[in-house]
Design goal:
The complex is a heterodimer of chains A (about 140) and B (about 800). Chain A has helices at about 25-35, 80-85, 90-95, 105-120, 125-130; strands spanning about 5-10, 15-20, 50-55, 60, 75. Chain A is an alpha+beta fold and about 140 residues long. In chain A, a hairpin with a 2-residue loop joins strand 3 and strand 4 (about 60). A 7-stranded mixed sheet of chain B has the order 3-5-1-13-10-11-12, sandwiched between helices. Chain B is globular and about 85 Å long. Classes of the chains: A alpha+beta (about 140), B alpha+beta (about 800). At the A-B interface, helix 2, helix 3, helix 4 and helix 5 of A face helix 1 and helix 17 of B.
């Protein structure tokens, strides 16, 4: 259990080199080792979607991936997507429509929404619902 | 509206405007601060060993192997905490005859529910703590579980707490009017037994606590995910023998709460004890799996109900018998009997009938404790009432909307007292129903329904009128001995630069508390909204108050803010008047400027007033002492509660082959009085409706006969997700309460209160052609097929 693995990866555009416990998942790695607390652990079994982020450009559940698997990978989180301005329009619309209350699920919602917009320029309401059906929000429903 | 122009109607008022929430920006950038985001020096982590059995004697606990693990700092069982705390009893003294047993942070000799904390490990990381938990060896002696409330109350059932004598936690009855006579002369009587399954809150952020004790200055700081920081402080100082100056409770961002985070949990009390013992910060973040067996559950009720009607469509009487199981302890400090009590209070109360009988029995059992969760009792009372009304309409061959029209309390009949003694100041049931009919095109929808039925498509329309208890006064908890404040306070300070800092005792869990308070303060003071900075969630920085629960934030805290703003405004005008040699009544504040009241002409900026007040006292006339801070408190006194009302409708399709329900549309017409921010009101309603739909269709803590939870993960416990939810259209009416100048009532629970009833009635409407009906929630496909007698 104490086995450690050396990894080098790019997180939000910055190179990171760390020795991580073999069993540490990506969310814990980001939060505990890098202080990137914007990605949240909501269920730690891949259902709630609060930890949705990007690995090598594709969205993934951060709780279902070990940090040790990510040597050579590129990881993007809500912090990076905010700083780069990539999701600024989405954030502005979430704010204007009050598409969040407590905010715990919001990072995952934004990353998933950005992915949907990348796949379909103007998704229908039904497509939006279906795509976001993997992100649990208790406040706004 | 007649009368003088209120502060709410001033030019540039923010009241009634859908201002976006400034504090949402940090949440959108992943820069929020929930408890698990905090890092403190020397921080250690706690994990719990929980009882794997519903009922078992703890024969022996061996912690040696666990304690030997590298990184483990301390392991405690019940005996190790003796003397650190005093146990608690979740009894409210005004609930006559209520009883419960003392509860401890860790199970003493017996564990009484699967999930009860038994031992705690503190380690350098959560992972190491969990490893050590798995190495603790417990020798258990299984005892017979007491799962169903019926079994718990059966004659001869062994009492779960021998000192209590039996398993009856609480009983209550109401008998108003002439119920027997009403049923005897009724032309139609409909009876039904309703079952509401246990479900739970599933907060996105699980229960979280960081307890930091600094023995050098004897300061305990609790960073918690809570709705009621002042209550938590009072509880902690009482039970850990600390002084009022020794404890500070801080709530930063709270990742959802819905009533789950206003209770005292034994694991959290253990964490506080550990911080005191270790003299360093201890963090506990419940994981999702342990949340299912340690968060409070709610809604487990079996209700036998009946309704009496005349052939002219007059409701003559309601009668119910409610049996609820609350787990082994009444939850502290709000108790676990309020949900049943609210069912008894509420059933039928929005109809004119004066004849009402209700019985409630609340039983101890070996399941997790049950207590208040969003809309406490309302979803059950509403579903029972509205289902009986629909069944009554069916029996009489009347349209369900028409039966409601004939029996809802008339809008000009107020003040009104319900048979159970609820006092309604002024409600708008008839107008909300009329508005709903128009909004949903009721007649058009009925036509569409008939046409589709002919094609074998089975859609249903369900209506549900409701009332919601909001703005509770001190008679709710305080009178029963609980350290729960019914009042709230607001302190405003004009800063030298002309902005205002506002500290308010109501709290934010994403509802928009801080935004709404800023809107009120900015409107009354005549400031741009951006110049009001709101501080919440810190017992050291805010006035004393109850917090945010029971739909009380805006109605109570908002009024305190309004009164504080009026007081600060008077102080500012007094100082500005002295500076300008003008009588205060001839000047006003608008958009951050002191203006001439008559013409609106700008004289000086508030920054100039602030600077004179704080830095240039030398320029002020003799005897002028600027007072640029004002505090006001408010609590409702005229009525025990400010009731709101509304009506909901559900339009859905049932696949009679599979039992699946597709929600097509949902409508809500609500009347919460003054809506300070209509967007936030609508989002409270929508989120509440979805939470109600969860209980109606999906959510259930499934237990086997041994008291074992069968679906304690998010993969197995179904929550409502975007894919299944309908569009929810919301319309507002406004009947402000006269108990406050703001006139705001609560709105946080209205959606949850009415949605399960509307959905259940819609399902039954869809099933009507088959002569089938369902009275069990959640209405799963299997249960619907059973109702259709297809399985």
């Amino acid at each position: 259990m104490s086995e450690r693995v050396e990894i080098r990866l790019i997180v939000n555009g910055e190179p990171v080199a760390k020795s991580v416990p073999a069993r540490q998942n990506l969310v814990d790695f980001l939060r505990e080792e890098l202080g990137l607390t914007g990605t949240r652990a909501g269920c730690e079994h891949g259902v709630c979607g609060a930890c949705t982020l990007r690995i090598d450009g594709a969205i993934a559940r951060g709780c279902l991936v070990f940090a040790a698997q990510l040597d050579g990978s590129t990881v993007e989180t809500v912090e990076g997507l905010s700083d780069s301005g990539e999701i600024a329009d989405l954030q502005a619309q979430f704010l204007a429509r009050n598409a969040l209350q407590c905010g715990f699920c919001t990072a995952g919602m934004l990353v998933a929404s950005a992915e949907l917009l990348r796949r379909a320029e103007v998704p229908s309401r039904a497509e939006i619902r279906e795509f976001l059906a993997g992100n649990y929000c208790r406040c706004t429903g | 509206m007649s009368g003088p122009l209120s502060f709410l109607d001033r030019p540039n008022s923010y009241i009634g405007r859908s201002v976006p929430r400034p504090n949402a920006k940090r949440l959108l950038q992943g820069r929020g601060t929930y408890v698990d985001d905090l890092r403190l020096p020397r921080l250690v982590h706690a994990a719990f060993l929980r009882s794997p059995y519903a009922h078992a004697r703890i024969v022996r606990i061996d912690t040696a192997r666990a304690a030997a693990q590298s990184g483990v700092l301390r392991i405690v069982t019940a005996a190790d905490l003796a003397g650190v705390y005093t146990p608690w009893v979740g009894v409210l003294t005004h609930m006559k005859g209520m009883k419960s047993a003392p509860q401890h942070p860790l199970a003493q000799e017996r564990a009484r529910w699967q999930g009860e904390p038994v031992a705690a490990v503190v380690a350098e990381s959560r992972a190491v703590a969990e490893d050590a938990v798995s190495l603790i060896e417990v020798q258990w002696e299984e005892l017979p579980p007491l799962v169903s409330p019926e079994a718990a109350l059966a004659p001869g059932a062994a009492p779960l707490h021998p000192e209590l004598g039996d398993n009856l936690a609480f009983a209550r009855s109401v008998d108003a009017g002439a119920v027997d006579d009403a049923f005897a002369r009724a032309d139609a009587v409909v009876e039904e037994t309703f079952t509401f399954a246990r479900h739970t809150g599933v907060c996105p952020e699980t229960r979280s606590l960081l307890a930091d004790f600094n023995p050098a200055d004897r300061q305990l700081t609790l960073y918690c995910s809570s709705q009621a920081p002042h209550m938590m402080k009072e509880i902690v100082l009482r039970h850990f023998k600390l002084g009022e100056g020794d404890v500070r409770v801080v709530c930063r961002d709270v990742g959802g709460s819905y009533g789950i985070k206003i209770h005292v949990y034994p694991d959290e009390m253990t964490v506080i004890a550990l911080a005191l013992l270790l003299g360093r910060p201890v963090k506990f973040i419940a994981d999702r799996l342990e949340s299912f067996v340690s968060d409070i559950h709610a809604r487990a009720h079996r209700i036998k109900g009946r309704i009496a009607l005349s052939k002219t469509g007059e409701i003559l009487a309601f009668e119910i018998d409610d049996l609820a199981g609350i787990g082994p302890y009444s939850t502290y400090p709000r108790s676990s009997v309020v949900e049943g009590g609210q069912v008894v209070n509420l059933v039928g109360s929005w109809y004119r009938s004066a004849n009402y009988r209700a019985r409630l029995a609340v039983a101890f059992q070996t399941k997790p404790p049950m207590s208040q969760y969003r809309a406490v009792g309302h979803p059950i009372a509403c579903a029972v009432t509205e289902a009986l009304v629909d069944r009554g309409a069916h029996a009489l061959g009347l349209d369900p909307a028409e039966l409601r029209r004939r029996n809802l309390i008339a809008d000009d009949a107020y003040p009104w007292t319900s048979p159970a003694g609820l006092r309604f100041e002024k409600l708008s049931h008839q107008r909300t129903l009329a508005r709903l009919m128009e909004l949903m095109d009721y007649e058009g929808l009925r036509l569409e329904q008939r046409e589709l039925r002919a094609k074998g498509i089975h859609r249903g329309i369900g209506l549900a009128s409701f009332v919601e208890i909001t703005n509770p006064g001190p008679a709710f908890y305080g009178v029963g001995g609980a350290p729960i404040s019914a009042q709230d306070g607001c302190t405003l300070r004009l800063e030298p630069g002309g902005s205002v800092t506002c500290a308010v005792s109501i709290t934010e869990q994403g509802q928009g508390t801080e935004t709404v308070v800023a809107q009120i303060v900015a409107s009354v003071l005549g400031l741009p909204f951006e110049r009001v900075r709101v501080v919440t969630g810190d017992t050291e920085r805010t006035p004393y108050g109850g917090g945010t629960w029971a739909s009380r934030g805006v109605g109570i805290g908002g009024e305190a803010a309004l009164q504080a703003a009026k007081a600060l405004r008077a102080n500012i005008l007094a100082l500005a008047g002295a500076m300008l040699q003008a009588a205060p009544e001839t000047i006003d504040i608008a958009e951050g400027w002191i203006v001439e009241a008559a013409t609106g002409a700008r004289r000086i900026g508030l920054d100039e007033v602030g600077r004179a007040g704080y830095f240039r006292g030398d320029t002020l006339p003799p005897g002028v002492q600027p007072e640029l801070v004002a505090t006001r408190h408010y609590q409702p006194r005229d009525y025990p509660f400010a009731f709101t009302n509304g009506v909901q409708a559900s339009w859905l399709e049932v696949d009679v082959e599979t039992g699946f329900v597709t929600l097509l549309k949902h409508w809500v017409v609500e009347d919460c009085g003054t809506a300070v921010n209509p967007l936030l009101v609508e989002e409270q309603i929508r989120g509440g409706v979805v939470q109600g739909i969860g209980g109606a269709l999906f959510e259930e803590c499934l237990y086997d006969g041994a008291g074992q939870l069968l679906n304690g993960s998010l993969a197995d416990y179904l929550v409502p997700m975007a894919g299944e939810m309908p569009d929810i259209e919301v319309a507002h009416l406004s009947t402000p309460t006269r108990g406050s100048e703001l006139g705001a009532k609560g709105v946080g629970e209205a959606g949850t209160a009415g949605a399960p009833a509307a959905v259940m009635n819609a399902v039954n409407d869809a099933l009507a052609p088959f002569g089938a009906h369902i009275a069990e929630q959640p209405m799963t496909p299997a249960r619907i097929l059973r109702a259709l007698r297809r399985v």
